[in-house]
Amino acid sequence: MDDRPSRGGATGIPAAILALLGGIFHLIGVAGGAVMLAGDDDLGRALLTFLLHVVVAAVLITGGVGLILAKPFGRVCTIAGAVLALLLYVSVLVLGALGVYFLGLADRTLPLGYLALLCLPAVVTLVLASLRPTARWVTSGWS
User: Fold this and answer.
1) HSE of 6 in the Cβ direction (CA atoms, 13 Å)?
2) What are phi and psi of 108, to 5 degrees?
3) CA triplet 141, 64, 142: central angle to 5 degrees?
């Protein structure tokens, strides 16, 4: 039996996959923001939607690739991207409750279930990327 501690691939790799999937999800939001820019009467809301999705997608994808490569920046970017995503989802909820709608929301319906569903992978990504085995993964790498 091998008594050495795990190098963290069991947490680092799933965190990387979740970060990449989250980044792809936000790339879809980038496309939606671009469509809004082309046809929405509220340019500010459309631009905000587009830019927020671009930032979150870029940070999550950078983090996911970095984690796959077992680089320390990947862990930092993944944690930052998951936190940004959670802040974005919570801000949609809070601002929507105050009557300010963005990220594609245009009416008074707040999709609480949808937002909770969005938060779940972001929370799991954050937890996995924050764990000590993932820190070991980015320092010991594949070898």
Assistant:
1) 11
2) -85, 5
3) 15
For residue 1, the model assigns a pLDDT of 46
Q: What is the pLDDT of residues 69-85, one digit of tens each?
A: 999 999 999 999 999 99
pLDDT digits (tens, 9 = 90+) for 33-47: 888 778 767 777 778
Q: What is the dihedral of CA 59, 60, 61, 66, to 10 degrees?
A: 90
The burial of 125, by beta-carbon neighbours within 10 Å (0-12 exposed, 13-18 middle, 19 or more buried), is given as: buried
C-beta neighbour count of 110 within 10 angstroms: 16
Pairwise CA distance, residues 121 & 23, whole Å = 11
Q: How far apart are CA 142 and CA 123, in angstroms?
A: 25
What is the separation of C-alpha 132 from the centre of its chain, rounded to a whole number of angstroms?
20
118 pLDDT more than 70: yes
Pair 15, 122: CB distance under 8 Å = no
Cβ contact 50:37 at 8 Å: yes
